[in-house]
Amino acid sequence: MKFSRTTILGAGSWGTALAVLWAKGGKEIVLWGHDRERIERVQATRENSDYLPGVALPPSVAATSHITSCADADLIVFVTPSVAVRSVAERLRNSVNRAAILLSCTKGIEHGTGLRMTEILAEIFPGHTVAVLSGPNLAVEVSRDLPTATVLGCQQPECAEELQQHLGSARFRIYSSDETTGIELGGALKNVFAIAAGVSDGFGLGDNSKAALVTRSLAELLRLGTAMGGDPKTFYGLSGAGDLIATCFSQYSRNRRVGEQLGRGESLEQITSTMRMVAEGIPTTKSAFECARRLRIETPIIDQIHGVLHEGKPPAQALEELLGRDQKAERL
C-alpha cells in the first residue's frame, strides 16, 4: 500500500517528535492539536515551544487545529493522551477515509473498561486495519535524531511490514510483530513502575534498591500482562523490558519525575498543577489496579503506587509496606 498522506493526532512532545522524524524522511505530515492558539503559534514560529522547544518543524509539516483536515489521510496516527483517544476518534468516526490504516502511539489503558487503545479504535472504526507502535522512545532524543529502536505490531503481518518500511529509518529502527496486546500493555504498564522508580530516586535509596525495584517491576508486568492476554515473550522485548528501563532511569521521563517529586514530599496536586504534559502513569495506575483486582493477580508495586496516587497514602508508608512483605522464592 502506498501512504501518500499521514496525519498525526496529538501535538504534544511525542506527536511533534514523530512529525519531525517522518518529515525529515521526506513525508508530508499533517499535525493536529486541539488548542487553536497553540497551533497558531506553531504555525507562526515553526516550533512547538510548549512541548519540544528548540526543535524546528520541517516545511513538510502542516499544523492544524481543524480535525476535518485530517479525515482523508491514508495513515492516521493517534498520539493523544489515553483519556482523549475515544473522544478524538469519535469526532472522526463518520468522516475518516474508509481505506485508512490507524496506528496507535498512545500508551495507556482506558479507565473503567480496561480496553487497550487499539481495542478502542477497532470498536469505533470497524473494518479498518489497526496497528500499534511502542518502545523505549523518548521524544526529545527522537527529535534530535539519536538512534532509537521500537516495535510495530499488527495482526496483519503484511501491514506491519509495510509500515515498518514506510516509517522506519537508520536512526529509527522498527521491528515488526504480529502481536499487539503485549506491545500495548508493556508500553502502558511500565509508566506505573516508572513512578515507583522515581519515588525511589526521591528518597535517595540508591542503585541497589532501584535495580531490585525495576527487576521486580518486570516480574509484575509479566504476571499481569500475560493474564490480560499478552505474549510473555513480548514483555522481554522493546515495549516491555526496553521501555521499562528507559522510563525508569531517564531524566526525560515524566512519570519518573512525578515519582521523584512525590518522594521529595510534594503532593500530587502540586506536581500536576505545574505540568504541561500528561504523565500517563497516573490514570494508568487506576486502570491497572482495577484489572489486577478483576483478574486476581498479585501486584504489590501497582497496589502501593495506587495507594499513593489515588488513596492519599504517604509514599514513606507505601515503601515500608512494600519492604515489609514476607520474603519468598524468586519467581518471574
Report on this structure.
- The protein has 332 residues and is α/β, with parallel strands linked by helices.
- The chain folds into two domains: 6-178, NAD(P)-binding Rossmann-like Domain (Rossmann fold); 188-323, N-(1-d-carboxylethyl)-l-norvaline Dehydrogenase, domain 2.
- The protein has helices at 13-24, 36-45, 82-92, 117-124, 139-143, 157-167, 181-203, 206-227, 238-249, 254-263, 268-273, 281-295, 300-310, 315-323; strands spanning 6-9, 29-32, 61-64, 75-78, 101-104, 130-134, 148-154, 172-177.
- The termini are far apart.
- The model has no long low-confidence stretch (mean pLDDT 95).
Globular, elongated, flat, extended or rod-shaped: what is the shape?
globular
Radius of gyration using CA atoms only? 19 Å
Give the integer mean of the pLDDT values: 95
**CATH evolutionary superfamily of the largest domain:** NAD(P)-binding Rossmann-like Domain
Unreliable runs: none
The helix content, as a percent range, equals 40-55%
Number of domains: 2
**What oligomeric assembly is this protein in?**
single chain
**Largest sheet geometry:** 8 strands, mixed
Element order: H for helix, E for strand = EHEHEEHEHEHEHEHHHHHHHH
Task: Please summarize what this structure is.
The chain is of the alpha/beta class and 332 residues long. The protein contains 14 helices and 8 strands.
Map the helices and strands.
Elements: E1 6-9, H1 13-24, E2 29-32, H2 36-45, E3 61-64, E4 75-78, H3 82-92, E5 101-104, H4 117-124, E6 130-134, H5 139-143, E7 148-154, H6 157-167, E8 172-177, H7 181-203, H8 206-227, H9 238-249, H10 254-263, H11 268-273, H12 281-295, H13 300-310, H14 315-323
Parallel strand pairs: 1-2, 1-4, 2-3, 4-5, 5-6, 7-8
Antiparallel strand pairs: 6-7
Helix pairs in contact: 3-4, 7-8, 7-9, 7-10, 7-12, 8-9, 12-13, 13-14
